[in-house]
Amino acid sequence: MSHYQTSYRHAIEQPEAFWAEQAKRIPWFTPPSTILEYDDQGHARWFVDGEMNTCFAALDHQVAEGRGDQAAVLWDSPVTGEKRRLSYREMRDQVARFAGALAGLGVTKGDRVVIYMPMVPEALVAMYACARLGAVHSVVFGGFAPHELAVRIDDAQPKVVVAASCGIEVDRVIAYKPILDEALSQSRHRPDACVVLQREQSRAELTPRDHDWQALVAEAAPAECVPVKATDPLYILYTSGTTGKPKGVVRDHGGHAVALHYSMEAIYGMQPGEVFFSASDVGWVVGHSYIVYGPLLRGCTTLVYEGKPVRTPDAGAFWRLIEEYDVKVFFTAPTAFRAIKKEDPEGRRLEDHDISGLRALFLAGERLDPPTFHWLDDLVPVPVIDHWWQTETGWPIAANPLGLEAVPTKAGSATYPVPGFNVQVLDRDGEVAPANTQGSVVIRQPLPPGCLTGIWRDPQRFHAAYMAAYPNCYLTGDGGYFDDDGYLFIMGRTDDVINVAGHRLSTGEMEEVLGSHPAVAECAVIGIQDALKGQLPVGLVITKDGFDGDETALEAELVARVRQTIGAIACLKEVLVVPRLPKTRSGKILRKLLRTIADGEEYGIPSTIDDPASLQEVHEQMRARDLGQSSQARPAG
Ligand code: COA
Ligand code: AMP
C-alpha cells in the first residue's frame, strides 16, 4: 500500500488514534485526553479537554523554538511601493502590544472583534491579537459594501471594530472609514470603540468613538496569551449561503491548529523556515488558513501580497515574487492565471525570472479548468495541483498530497480525498453512486479537526444546511464523481451559490437586492460561464404591472443597486427586463433551465412548465444581448 493509502485508511478507520498523533505536533497548555466526542446532535468535537492558544502556538512557541530572528511575515505592496519584513520576535511583540491595546478597550475572552482591513501586516497582527486574548475575530473582506459590513456587525455583535483608513485597488484608493461609518449607521449593534490604522494614501477623520492604532499601541502594555479550550471559537467567517443572510462559519482553536499544521506538512510538503505564498486575501478562508495561520503554525514564513496578478505592474508579478522571496510553494485561484494568460499568452514574463526554488503550484477557489491546467503544466517546471475545499472545511478535502506522496495528476480532477475526509458521492436516494456517475458529494461523519463547529448563533441553520440531507453525512453543496482510479472530479455547486473570480457569491442574495426595488415584481439571478472569471451573475427581472418607466434606465439602476448593497465584488453587470420568466405550474422559476440556455447547451422543455412560450422569449432576449453562450443553445429534438 502507498504512503498516501496507509495514511488515508488509518485516518478513516482509527480517527482518534490518527488525530491524537497529529495533536502532539502543536504545543498544549493541557494536552487533550479525550480526542473525539460527539455533541447532542451527533457533531464531532475534537480534543475537548485540551487547553492551548493559537497565537501561542504560532508565535511565542516558535520564538521559544529558536525562530525569533526568522522572518514570520514578508509584506510586498506594489500598490504603495512598500516592502516590510517582520521576524517572529517582532511579530510576537507587536501582537502582544496590540492585544494589550484591545484589552484596554475592554476586550476579553469570548468577545467578538470585527476586522475590516486590506492586505497589510497589521491585519495579521489584529487577528493574532484577538486569538491571544481568546477573543473571536470576524474579518470582513474589503470589497464588501456598507450593507454587508452592517449585516456582519449585527450578527457578530463585536465589542470593537478594527479598520484601516483605506484599501488600495489598481486604479483607485478606497476610503474604508466612510464605509465603516455608513455600516455603523445602518447596523443596530453599536461597538464600544473602533480602532483605525491610518494609511498615508487616505487618512481618516476620527470621531470620539475612534482610536488611532499607533497612539493606542504606544500606550499599551503587552498582553500574555490566554489559555482557551480547544473547542473555544477562534473566529467567525461569513460566507454566502443560498439565502440573503450570510452564514457565520465558526472555527475552533485546537482542531484548527492541528489540522492546519498537518496540512502544511502532508499536503503542501512545507518545512519550517521555508516561504509559503498564498495570493488570496485575509477576508477569505484561504487567507485565514494559508496566509495567516497555517504557515506560522508550521514555523514557515508567509508572504503577504497587496497587489493583483496583473496590472501591479504587469503579468510577471507572481514570477517576480516567487524569485525575490524564494517561494517554495505557491497557491492562488485559477482565475488569477486566466488573467495572466490573457495578458501574456506565451508566458514570456516567466523568462525574466528564476523560479527554480519553487516546488509546487496549488490552485483552489474554483475548479482548475483543463485549458488553464494544460497552459500552466506546459509553462511551469513543477507539479500543478488542483485541490478542493470550502470556507466550511477550512482546509483541503481533496488534493494531491505532495508531503505524503506526489501522485500523477489528471486534468480537471482534485485528485484524492485527503486523510481525515471520508468523501462519498451519493445518488438521489442516498446510495453510493458507482464510479463515473455524478452525484452529491458528501463527507461522512466525523468531519476531521479544523472543520466548522457551527453557524454563529444559528444551530438550526447548521443542521438544516449541512446535516439534514443524508444521515451521518455533511453535505458539501458540490456535485461530482469518482473515476475508475478513485480520482475525484468536482463539477460545480448543486445550490444557488456561484463562483465569480474565485469569490463565492449567493444568487439568492442578489435576488433579494433586485426584488427590493419598487418597480420589480419578480426576478432570477443566474450564474453564466465566463472565460476570465469562471462565472458571472446575470439578473432577469419582471416589472410590476403599471411600470411605464424606461427599461434601460431601470436595468442600469438595478446594476448600481447591487454594487452599492453588496459591493463591486458581486460583478453583476447585466440585468435584463423580461416580460415573463419560465416557471413550473406550481410557480417555481426554472433557474436551472435558464442556466442551461446561458451555457449554450441543448435543453429539453419540461412537462411541468406553465407557459413554454416564456422560455423561448427569454432565450431570444439572452441571445440578443449575447449573454454567455446563449446563441448556441438549442431546444432538444
Ligand atoms: N476592496 C475593494 N474593492 C475590491 C477589492 C477589495 N479588496 N477586491 C476587488 N474589488 C473590486 C475591484 O476593484 C473590481 O471593481 P470594478 O468593478 O470597479 O473594476 C470589483 O471589485 C471586481 O473585482 P475582481 O472580480 O477581483 O475583478 P478584477 O478585474 O479587479 O480582477 C482578477 C480580476 C482575476 C485579477 C482578480 O479577481 C483576482 O486576482 N482573483 C483571484 C481571486 C482570489 O484570490 N480568490 C481567493 C480564493 S483562492
Ligand atoms: P469558498 O467557501 O469561498 O472557499 O468556496 C467553496 C466552493 O468553491 C466550493 O464549494 C466549490 O464549489 C468551489 N471550489 C473551491 N475549490 C474548488 C476546486 N478545486 N474544484 C472545484 N470547485 C472548487
Question: What does the model show?
Answer:
- One of its GO terms (cellular component) is intracellular organelle lumen.
- InterPro entries: ACAS_N, AMP-bd_C, AMP-bd_C_sf, AMP-binding_CS, AMP-dep_synth/lig_dom, ANL_N_sf.
- With 637 residues, the protein is of the alpha/beta class.
- It has a domain at 500-632: ANL, C-terminal domain (GMP Synthetase, Chain A, domain 3).
- Helix content is 32%, strand content 24%.
- It has a seven-stranded mixed sheet with strand order 5-4-17-16-18-19-20, with helices on both faces. Strands 7-6-8-11-12 form a five-stranded parallel sheet, with helices on both faces.
- The longest helix has 17 residues, at 88-104.
- The radius of gyration is 24 Å and the shape is globular.
- The termini are far apart.
- The model has no long low-confidence stretch (mean pLDDT 96).
- Residues 118, 142-143, 167, 169, 174, 279-280, 284, 286, 308-310, 332-333, 335-336, 339, 364-365, 501-503, 568-569, 571 line the site of coenzyme A (COA).
Q: If classified by CATH, what would the architecture of the domain at 500-632 be? A: 2-Layer Sandwich
Bound molecules: coenzyme A, adenosine monophosphate
Query: What distance separates the N and C termini?
Result: 50 Å
Reported by name, the CATH topology of the domain at 500-632 is GMP Synthetase, Chain A, domain 3
Global geometry: globular
| Largest sheet report | 7 strands, mixed
* Mean pLDDT over the residues: 96
CATH class of the domain at 500-632: Alpha Beta
